[in-house]
Amino acid sequence: MIDKRVTTTQAALAGLHDGASLMLSGFGGAGFPVALVRAVERLGVCDLTLIMNTLRFVETYAPLLFEERRVRRAVCSAARGRGERPSSFERQLFAGELEIELVPQGTFSERVRAGGAGIPAFYTPAGVGTPLAEGRETRNFDGRLYLLETSLRADFALIRGHRADRWGNVIFTGSQMNFAHAMATAAQITVVEVDRIEDEPLPPNAIDIPGIYVQRVIALDDER
Amino acid sequence: MRPLSREQIAWRAARDLPDGAYVNLGIGMPVRVAAYTPPGREVMFQSENGVLGVGPVAAEDAADPDLVDAGSQRITLVPGASTFDSAEAFAMIRGGHLDVTLLGAFQVSAAGDLANWDPLRTDKGPLLGGAMDLAMGARSVRIMMQHTTRDGLPRLVETCSYPLTARQVVRRVYTDLAVVEVTERGFLVTEIIAGLSREELAVRTGAPLQFADGCAVLAAPDLA
After folding, report:
1. Is A171 on the interface with B (CB under 8 A)?
2. How much is the ipTM here?
């Protein structure tokens, strides 16, 4: 029988180890897995690689990950902290203690999508002629230059959804999906926290993430 | 001489959006453009987190934290709207499906180069987001910005000193002083505010200006 439901955050994060790479979904707070990220903070794992759109949500909800220097590297499209004063990750960034790979947002989601779809690399126009393209491979297609980008995969993806069933099917609400679909496909273990897990199967035509991409689902209160 | 306010610049930019257009608005001043869509025109606003058909910001008591735009504002949807994931949002953007993007900028060069993501500060990190994808993908890239910096330095320049977002992409610039087209022969002023001479505008601009035949007065109604 397939049953992907877990009931504790310990079980949800089982196998998360020092040195792991972690994809975190969420955009503007929608779809950000606050409860799971807080559980990662409590777990004390270090030497992490974070793959997420903007770092400030970790600073808001799990500040110890940066303050205790448990993040070694981040792949993101924004490394701007809140407010006018430098945040903990901005200080580490400028002190050379935190390595950041800055990626155009569309390239970011496509690298993740490609990683989950078995595509090792692709060409995109975004970034051509900018500092991000320096020293990298470009290629001319039909008179226009494109930049080679490689795909991204991770050990874990953490996602906030709306509803799930025991087969791991997930439905989102509003603009919650953002990076979640691509990340679910690109991670070894995908964990989705949801408002509720239905006893009955979700309607097949309404499913946003098919259960094959999801290893664990857990019902958790929204901790925003 | 009365320079346009930020709201008036947004009003002016909105006048150039045709009925039926699909448009992405950058965070900050550009997102205000939607409020000034001329009556009788249906414009679909895309937000790169995964929304097509962004409506007005939600009333506080009706706001859904899971439905936001790319600037993290809690929004409403218009009739005909759809939601989707980030990879899909950027397929729309890079795939040439957007008619217009309106973005903010630090600098625009006479060749249409755009610089708008790296503030060149050593205390606040870079905020790249989807600007590179939008600048390369939208059919028309239009910029809204103050004509000069707070220190009075030109933002319309011969060559950008800030790191580039994209090369040779900007078509039109709306400032508090003028509307400027970027042509093969450089900047072409099509509108200028009353009480500012062509010479005075040239002094505030870092590259040669040409003036269109029939260069008009840039005027906007009083707005809150």
Report:
1. no
2. 0.96
Enumerate domains of chain B plus CATH numbers: 6-217 (3.40.1080.10)
Q: Which residues pair with B82 in a beta bridge?
A: B52
List C-alpha distances in Å: B84 to A178, A182, B92, B219.
7, 11, 11, 39
Residues of B tagged active-site: 48
Q: Point out the residue among A78, A84, A128 whose CB comes nearest to the CB of B129.
A: A78
Number of domains chain A is built from: 1
Tell me the C-alpha distance between A221 and B56, whole Å: 28
Global model pTM greater than 0.90: yes
Domain that holds residue A175: 18-121+153-219
Q: How confident is the model over A102-111, as pLDDT tens digits?
A: 999 999 999 9
**Would you state the structure tokens that stand for residue A150, as one six-digit string?**
């490689």
How much is the mean pLDDT over chain B?
A: 97
Q: Answer left, alpha or beta for residue B219, where phi above 0 means left and psi between -120 and 50 means alpha.
A: beta
CATH number, domain containing residue A190: 3.40.1080.10
pLDDT-derived band at A90 (thresholds 50, 70, 90) equals very high
Q: Inform me whether the C-beta atom of residue A126 falls under 8 Å from chain B C-beta atoms.
A: yes
